[in-house]
Write a structure and sequence with these properties.
There is one protein chain. It is built from 11 helices and no strands. It is mainly α. The protein has a single domain, classed as Glycerol uptake facilitator protein (Up-down Bundle). α1 (3-26) runs parallel beside α4, α4 packs across α10 (197-209) and α10 runs antiparallel to α11. The longest helix has 28 residues, at 130-157. The two termini are 33 Å apart.
Length: 245
Amino acid sequence: MSEFCAELIGTMILILLGNGVVANVVLKGTKGNNGGWIVITLGWGLAVFAGVIVAGPYSGAHINPAVTIGLAIAGKFAWPKVGLFILAQMLGAAIGALLVWIFYRHHYNQTQNHGAILATFSTSPAIRKLPNNFFSEMVGTFVLIFVILYIEGASFACNTMPDVKIGLGSVGALPVALLVTAIGLSLGGTTGYAINPARDLSPRMMHAILPIRNKGASDWAYSFIPVSGPITGAAIAATLYLLFL
C-alpha cells in the first residue's frame, strides 16, 4: 500500500467509526440513541486505534493534518510530503463521512434536530465564545502532539523501533487510542475536541453537499476554529519539543 492510500484509508476508517458512533448516539431511532458522552469518547478512541492499525505500517498513520505539520516542524517528517499527506487525509475524511450518511440514512431521515445532524459530521461549541473555543482546540491538540512526540522519542531512543515510519503508528495504536480517549474525557466538553482539521473540515463539506433531509446550516462561521486551533497547538507542541530536546 502506498503512503497516500494508507493515509486515505486510515482516515476514512477513523471518520467512519468516529462519526459513526456520534450518529449512533444522537440520531433518532438508533440502538445506541442517548448513549452519552462516554460512548462517544470511547468510540472515537477505538476509531483512532483502528485507523492507526491499518495505516501505521505504510505511512506511519498520521491520519491528521495537525500530526503531519507537527512532525514536520519537529524535523521528523519531510516537508515536501506534507501536502500529499493532507490531501489524502482530507479525501479519506470525506469518504468516511459519506459512508456514515449512507449507513444511517434512514435515521437521518427521521431526525428533526439540525444540531444533532451536524454533530454527526463536524464539531460545534457548547458555549460559543470563539477565543475560548480556539484555545480549547489548541490545548487539546497540543497535548496530543506533545505526548506523541515524547512517546515516539523515547521509543526510538531505546532502539526498540528502528525501522518504523514516523507517525501515530510509531507510538503504537493502543497508547494513541488511550491518549485520544483521555483528551476527549478531560478536554472535549467545550468544543467536541476536533483536534484534527481533516476530521472537521471534510465532513462539514459533505454536510453542505449531501441531500440530507432537515440538515440545516453547516455553520461555516465556526469552521475555522477546528482548523486553526489544532494547527496552532501542533506547532507550539513541536516547537517546545525542539527547545526542550
